[in-house]
Specification:
Layout lengths: L11 E8 L10 H12 L3 E8 L5 H4 L4 E4 L4 H10 L2 H12 L4 E4 L1 H5 L3 E3 L5 E3 L6 E4 L8 E8 L6 E3 L4 E3 L7 E8 L2 E4 L7 E5 L9 E2 L1 E3 L2 E4 L5 H4 L1 H16 L11 H13 L5
Parallel strand pairs: 1-2, 1-3, 3-4, 4-16, 5-7
Antiparallel strand pairs: 5-6, 7-12, 8-11, 8-13, 9-10, 13-14, 15-16
Helix pairs in contact: 1-7
Bound molecules: glutamine (GLN).
Glutamine binds next to helix 3, helix 5 and strand 11.
C-alpha cells in the first residue's frame, strides 16, 4: 500500500482553531471553515472546529492542528488586539514556528504583522509573527476593492518546514482568484515571502505587485471570496500540512473532483482576459 495515501479505513483527526469567529468574519470568511471541514470529511478525516472567542484559554489554542482567522473592520481588530496578549501570543508564535498551518485573512493578516496604522493614525500593535507592517493612508486614498487574480508562482511559494524547503504551487492551478476590500497597505520585510504575485487587482499595497505573505506554513492574504471555495488547492495544502505536522509523516490526500471550482476560476480568468 502506498504509504502516502490515507486508505478510507484509517481515520485521522484534526482540530481547527477558529480565532474570533464572532468578530473576525465580516466578509463571509466563515465560508473557509466550511470548506476545510467538508474537504476533511470527504476524505474520512475526523475534524473538530474550536471557536476561540475573546477570553479563550491559550492551553486550548495549543491543542489545535490548524488555525484560521477572518477579516473585519478596524473596530473589531482593536478588540482582538486587546485580547491577543501574553500567553496567547506566545502560544500562537510557537505554533507558527513549529509549522502549524494557518490562514489569516485581511484584518487578521494585518494583525500578525508588526502593526496596523488606521486612517486616523491610531496604531494597533500586531503580533510580529509576519515581518511586515500595514498603514491606512487615510480618506484621500481609496480603499483597495475589487476582484483579484494572483499567481502562486512556485518560485515564491517556498515553504520551509524546518527540515527542507519545498515549493507547493500545483502548476495546473497556479492562479488564485478572490475579492479584496481593504484600506490598509501592507509592506513586506525581508524575513517573509509574498504569498503570490498580483496579475489583476491591488494585492498588498497596489504598488509592488505582491499579494499576501507566507512564513513557514502560515499564510496571510487579502483574498476574501471566500478564498478557499474558489481555490481548493490552498485548502488541501493546509489540510496536508496539518496532518504532516500532527502525525510527523509525509501524507498525501486523495484527490477530490474540483472540476466545478476550476470552471469557476476559468470564468474569472476569461472575464479579465488572463491566460490560464
Ligand atoms: N480594517 C482593515 C482595512 O481596512 C481590514 C479590512 C478587512 O479585513 N477586509 O484594511
Amino acid at each position: 500500500m502506498n504509504k502516502n495515501y490515507l486508505p478510507k479505513a484509517i481515520r485521522h483527526s484534526l482540530t481547527i482553531g477558529w480565532l474570533y469567529p464572532d468578530l473576525m468574519s465580516t466578509y463571509g470568511d466563515r465560508g473557509n471553515i466550511i470548506v476545510l471541514q467538508k474537504r476533511c470529511e470527504w476524505r474520512n478525516i475526523e475534524v473538530k472546529i474550536l471557536h476561540l472567542n475573546p477570553g479563550f484559554d491559550h492551553k486550548l489554542l495549543a491543542t489545535c492542528n490548524m488555525l484560521f482567522m477572518g477579516g473585519a473592520q478596524d473596530k473589531q481588530q482593536q478588540i482582538v488586539a486587546q485580547d491577543l496578549k501574553k500567553e496567547k501570543v506566545e502560544t500562537l508564535k510557537k505554533m507558527v514556528d513549529d509549522g502549524v498551518p494557518g490562514l489569516y485573512i485581511c484584518g487578521a493578516y494585518q494583525l500578525l504583522g508588526k502593526y496596523y496604522k488606521e486612517a486616523d493614525g491610531t496604531k494597533i500593535l500586531g503580533l510580529g509573527i509576519f515581518d511586515l507592517y500595514t498603514e491606512n493612508p487615510g480618506e484621500n486614498h481609496p480603499r483597495l476593492i475589487g476582484n483579484i487574480i494572483a499567481e502562486l508562482a512556485g518560485s515564491t511559494w517556498q515553504v520551509a518546514d524546518g527540515k527542507k524547503t519545498t515549493s507547493y504551487a500545483p502548476q495546473a492551478t497556479r492562479h488564485i482568484v478572490g475579492f479584496e476590500n481593504h484600506g490598509g497597505r501592507t509592506y513586506l520585510g525581508k524575513n517573509v515571502k509574498p504569498f503570490a504575485k498580483v496579475i489583476k487587482g491591488f494585492g498588498n499595497n497596489g504598488e509592488d505587485g505582491t499579494e499576501g505573505a507566507i512564513y513557514k506554513n502560515a499564510i496571510g492574504t487579502y483574498l476574501h471570496g471566500p478564498i478557499l471555495p474558489k481555490n481548493p488547492e490552498i485548502a488541501d495544502y493546509l489540510i496536508k500540512k496539518a496532518l504532516e505536522v500532527k502525525y510527523k509523516d509525509e501524507i498525501g490526500l486523495e484527490d477530490l473532483d474540483d472540476s466545478l471550482e476550476q470552471k469557476a476560476k476559468e470564468i474569472i480568468e476569461k472575464r479579465y482576459n488572463v491566460k490560464v
